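Whiteboard transcription, Tuesday session. T.W. wrote the structure tokens on the left side:
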């Protein structure tokens, strides 16, 4: 029996793509292995968002080249494949396939024709969703892509190049996937997209569907207990969507809505043309709709031309909004992006110092929020046992991790957990009576 090995790097969309690839190969009779040396086909499902991510992929390829069986097929799929294209074969001549994020459904061709080299980095839009069979068994959390690509063209971001222009999937296809997920074990649905709240689909009768329509149509599914979506662009947070937080109890009170920087000058150069006041107004509206809502953000520090004063404004907005669970990155110049050509690139040591300062501030905010949860009882999703087998890992409605001492082999998928302790990274709790 032939075996496949797959390793996924990067965002939730990649995690979804990785699951689809694994499911496609399983349905063709291949079995997954976690040992490279045991595999007949090796797939790296890659991320190109920062230079470090791309470097990681090429060093992993170097290791795999030495560890794999001599006749094993190996290659890359995803954003590095699209970024590197045919150049990947020059860097690693033994590669058998290089498939972009919208062409991995072509992977079986290499199984049929193992002596060929397969290169496809086309942006095929929605073709892959149509060509792939449904997953036979959904995990508890089903990631359902609703749109792919991005039209925002932030000047630092490679995603519009690697994943292409925005395309929204047909409403009825997304709902069919949600029903299938509910029927096959999903408890939580997470709608996915690089610009998920920009979802917009017009059917043949001219009726237009938005993300709020997807949420409204999914919420009545009895198996589905929690709904969320990621990642949102601030100005696409329209009133119909904000209203969902008021009316739809299954929608979690947690939203990832990256601001990236607190400086109007930097935001302009990033080509993120929103006023800070507009962003703050949206947060106020969200809090009016759902008083317990928590917001998380992504931040980039050391964007070209960022001054100490600009950076201070980023720290200020982080404290003002009180973001929880945020991600912060040093600006990384990427190919095919406008910012990589801008003057005034910031030296590495200054980027590192600013990142450390921002991380300290974000960690403080997160710890304070986590501590404020102690004593509360929260409805949490069970993710299964931890590595020791002596605890169960739960996810709170704010996506915090909560550890509960238990060896229950068949825990309820959703449980009320009383939070007993907290630190920066996670919570501890016990089953509430
Ligand atoms: N909306 C997208 C964002 C994709 S990139 C999504 O979630 O699918 C994820 C995050 O990486 C961005 O929000 C940004 O903070 C960061 N990022 C993107 N390009 C970057 C770069 N060139 N350098 C550093 N960080 C970057
Ligand atoms: Fe990238 Fe900006 Fe879109 S961060 S994915 S271009 S919203």
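and on the right, the sequence the group agreed on:
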């Amino acid at each position: 029996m032939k075996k496949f090995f797959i390793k996924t790097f990067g965002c939730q969309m990649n995690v979804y793509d990785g699951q689809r690839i694994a499911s496609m190969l399983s349905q063709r009779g291949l079995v997954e292995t976690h040992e490279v040396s045991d595999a007949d086909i090796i797939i790296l499902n890659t991320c190109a968002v920062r230079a470090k991510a791309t470097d990681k992929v090429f060093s992993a390829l170097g290791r795999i080249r030495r560890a794999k069986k001599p006749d094993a097929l190996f290659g890359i799929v995803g954003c590095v494949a699209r970024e590197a294209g045919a150049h990947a074969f020059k860097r690693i001549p033994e590669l058998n396939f290089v498939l972009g994020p919208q062409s991995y459904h072509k992977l079986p061709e290499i199984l049929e024709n193992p002596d060929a080299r397969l290169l496809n980095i086309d942006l095929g839009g929605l073709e892959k969703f149509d060509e792939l069979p449904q997953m036979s068994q959904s995990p508890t959390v089903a990631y359902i892509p609703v749109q792919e690509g991005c039209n925002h063209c932030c000047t630092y971001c490679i995603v519009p190049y690697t994943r292409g222009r925005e395309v929204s999937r047909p409403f009825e296809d997304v709902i069919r996937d949600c029903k299938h997920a509910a029927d096959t074990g999903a408890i939580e649905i997470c709608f996915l997209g690089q610009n998920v709240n920009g979802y917009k689909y017009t059917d043949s009768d001219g009726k237009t569907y938005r993300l709020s329509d997807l949420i409204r149509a999914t919420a009545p599914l009895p198996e589905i207990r929690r709904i969320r979506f990621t990642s949102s662009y601030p100005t696409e947070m329209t009133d119909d969507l904000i209203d969902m937080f008021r009316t739809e109890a299954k929608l979690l009170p947690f939203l990832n809505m990256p601001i990236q920087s607190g400086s109007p000058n930097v935001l302009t150069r990033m080509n993120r043309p929103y006023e800070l006041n507009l962003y703050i107004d949206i947060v106020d509206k969200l809090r009016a709709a759902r008083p317990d809502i928590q917001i998380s953000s992504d931040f980039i520090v050391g964007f070209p031309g960022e001054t100490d004063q600009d950076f201070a404004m980023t720290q200020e907005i982080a404290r003002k909004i009180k973001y929880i669970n945020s991600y912060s990155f040093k600006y990384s110049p990427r190919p095919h992006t406008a910012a990589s050509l801008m003057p005034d690139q910031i030296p590495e040591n200054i980027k590192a110092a600013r990142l450390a300062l921002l991380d300290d501030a974000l960690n403080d905010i997160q710890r304070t929020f986590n501590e404020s949860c102690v004593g509360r009882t929260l409805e949490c999703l069970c993710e299964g046992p931890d590595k020791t087998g002596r605890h169960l890992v739960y996810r709170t409605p704010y996506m915090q991790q909560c550890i509960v001492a238990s060896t229950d082999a068949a825990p309820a998928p959703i449980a009320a957990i009383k939070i007993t302790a907290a630190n920066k990274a996670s919570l501890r709790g016990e089953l509430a009576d």
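Someone added at the bottom: The chain has three domains: 3-120, 131-372, 377-431.
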